Every structure is written in C-alpha cells, then in structure tokens.
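Predict the 3D structure for this chain.
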Amino acid sequence: MGTDNTAGTDNTAGTDNTAGTGNTAGTGNTAGTGNTAGTDYGISGNGYDAVHDTSSKPSSEPVEQSQSRDQGRHAVVGILHENDRFLVIRRSHLVRAPGLICFPGGGIEPGEDFETAVRRELMEELQLQVHVHEHLWTSVTRWGTRLEWFFCSRDPNHDPIANPEEVAEVLWLGTDELKFRNDLLGSMPEFLMAFETGSIILRK
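Done. Predicted structure below.
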C-alpha cells in the first residue's frame, strides 16, 4: 500500500495492460493512454508507501536516501466511483503518512502486470474484488515513482473492509468533499482537478 500527501501527481509508464485515454506530461514512457501531470505519489517504503509522497510529514530517512530508493519504482492506483463519490482510505498509523486520505493502491510486484497489481492491492487493503476497466492516467512523483491510475468497479454486494495494518478508515467522498481537504495525499488534488475539468473521464 502506501500513499502520501503532497500536491501534484505522477507520471508513469508502462509495462503491461492498459487502456484508456489521456494526456501525459512529465517523464518517460506512459502506458495505455493516461493523463499525466506531475504529482507526488512518491516516497520510499513498501507497497503504497512507496507510491505517495509524504513531504507533509517528517521522515527519519534522509531525503537523499529516500529519493535514490524510489527512482524507477512503479505503482498502481485504483479508482472506484459510485453515486458521484470516490472510494478513498485513511492511512493506518502503522504506515507512512499516517492519517492521510488517498486512493487505494500500491507498488507493482515483480512479474505482475498493471491489472494484476490493482486487483491484488484492492484485495490486500480492502478485501475487495474489483473489475479493472481502463487506464486513466499516468503520473510520476518528484521522487521518480511512476503511477498508473486505473478505473475499477466492484460487485455492489461486496463492501470494502479495511485491513487495519494499512487502512484506518474507508470513506466514500465526492469531489467537493475532497478537493478542499488539507489531509490529502499529493497526487489527489491534481487528479480531482483533471476529473472536474473533464480531462479524465470515468466510463465502464
């Protein structure tokens, strides 16, 4: 898992399956067709901790070491949107950037393609089986972590259940409820802006 608040978003590029639509900016290859801009889902750590930037929180690890460890990392973000609300999580106190709000997701493990990584992360964090529909966006953190954003859906009869080791709270929040918060991970504000302006379109 891993998410970290800071402003910005992340461009990433690809490896496997992607689909989708989008702009790219920032760095390197992009998978599928994703929108990208420069956000901060980057910080050293495991899983999603390695995905989001925690510059809003102090870290005991020297910045230089954190940056070098994150160079070349690749991660995924799962976007679920129902009844005009996004599925977001509050990070557990056991992970980096505790208490911050972010989308579920995390680092890609060796041998995984994007869709497999998204499904695994949603299962690990929320015990939630998801359908992965399309690649929405690619971004790269200032630490060099590449993020692939995917639109997903779930069986409406299966509710997310927080894994307390990674997730303190599960929330469904609308764009207006999210965009003015001061406890969001870094990539989220830019993603929300792109969604509001129509640069990112969610379609099943």
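Residues 2-71 have pLDDT under 50 and may be disordered.
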